Amino acid sequence: MNVLPLLDMRGITKSFPGVQALRGVDLTLHAGEVVALLGENGAGKSTLMKVLGGAVSPDAGTIHLSGEEVQLRSPLQAHRVGIAVIYQEFNLVPPLSARENLFLGQEQTRAGFIARGTERRRSLELFERLGVQIDPDVPCRSLPVAQQQAVEIARALAFQSRIVVMDEPTAALTAHEVERLFAIIRDLKAHGIGIVYISHRLEEIFAIADRIVVLRDGANVGERPIGGVTRNELIELMVGRALTDEFPPRDTRPGEPRLVVEGLCGGIVDDVSFAIRRGEVLGLTGLVGAGRTETARLLFGADRRSAGRIVLDGRPLSIRSPRDAIAAGIGLLTEDRKTQGLVLAHGVRENFGLPNLSWLSRWGWLRLGQERRRFAEYGDSLRIRVPHHDQPAKYLSGGNQQKVVLAKWLARNCEVLLFDEPTRGIDVGAKYEIYRIINDLAAAGKAVLLISSELPEVLGMADRILVMHGGRIRAEITDVAAATQEQILEAAMGGA
Ligand SMILES: Nc1ncnc2c1ncn2[C@@H]1O[C@H](COP(=O)(O)OP(=O)(O)OP(=O)(O)O)[C@@H](O)[C@H]1O
Ligand SMILES: [Mg+2]
């Protein structure tokens, strides 16, 4: 018997000015199947899913649902034929409540009025099925990320979707929330829903996917059942070359202390002290909410500290604002590129220049030539894909936006670099480049703080690891080579 696939996309082609994002891409999906869509930053994954979600109209190609051809002209229409796309950047309307978002476009009505009671009841049923506790009347903007995502998934269920797309759904989730998401995905599978799953975290692919489809430069380059592929083969398919090691070697030894932090307090951060030495990469890990980002923000002057001393190279610093921190030679790569790192409407090169104005305009005017040169340099080593350097940042793929933010800080020549989740959303090939750059910074004598939730990354990159829980440092691991993920997790959960 020849079962018709739930979804059959054929020859999907799409160009944007200066970029051919998709070149005749095919994708099939069966009921109850999880297909992982993989590829480097800018490969075309999100664009393909925007075509499926009715948000981008293709230049060519066909889409069949259970054998029937469909034209998807708008997101609402896609939703109505059973396709729910949960985008990299969520699509909820922030001021509306969870309930209003859930039923947006298919309001439950009685005699022409919105039946709030019915909607409320249905919302609660859906949240219960997903195992989350959300007040349907709370505005979505005040929900934590994991709950906003649950509202999106509930919306898919409310519309009786047959196909659910998740574009990097775990980027902002804790390990525990990822487990819950996987339980939800298994439940959706069991109900015959087909799922397209996009992620740069290979462990997740092996944990949840049935089949992988790999794109490179907007074209299909491979497709395998998950059982028939190894981690290395998968990386090679994505990147187009073999990567023997995931972490480049570093042969420098940390020297004297450069950044010394004593008794730092503010927000949930409670009496945090540590030092970062010359040429050292200090790992800072813990669960989301442990106070890692807050620590970095206090050091950077982005939040006000209530106590604590910050000393750089023996000189006490008085940091009251990010401007003070930058002047003192401290840089912060934020975890949230969308709201803190980039001006989305500005061109890439312009964004690149922004925090660098002080040295780019040393004699009072913008030295555009130099800006361009520096950008080209970092653009190459990080493999930032842009058609031209004045492309507005909002049109870049998620991973490429992150790289622009990174390039911005690298070009500044800071003495202390605070990296908050620097490789989130970055493909495996470019991750290696970022690790190499971190090593170069260390070799040049800088002090680097590497905040990361990915334990293999901290174990592979740090000279020493601090583990935070509840705003305090709970453990210091000096013998990183002998440390295990279990040991770190235990400290991160507040154990020994
Ligand atoms: N609206 C747009 N205008 C111009 N270019 C665009 C637009 N949307 C996407 N692109 C370009 O199309 C290409 C594919 O981008 P896409 O977002 O699909 O990549 P991706 O595979 O999702 O990458 P990532 O892993 O970084 O999220 C990129 O070069 C991107 O800059
Ligand atoms: Mg994407």
Notes on the structure:
It is built from 18 helices and 22 strands. The chain has about 500 residues and is α/β, with parallel strands linked by helices. The protein folds into two domains: about 5-240, Rossmann fold (3-Layer(aba) Sandwich), CATH 3.40.50.300; about 255-490, Rossmann fold (3-Layer(aba) Sandwich). The strands form five sheets. A six-stranded mixed sheet has the order 6-9-10-3-11-12, with helices on both faces. Strands 18-19-20-15-21-22 form a six-stranded mixed sheet, sandwiched between helices. Helix 4 (about 115-130) packs across helix 5. The longest helix has 16 residues, at about 175-190. Mean pLDDT is about 85; it is low at about 355-365. Bound molecules: adenosine-5'-triphosphate and magnesium ion. Adenosine-5'-triphosphate binds near residues 16, 41, 47, 397 and 399.
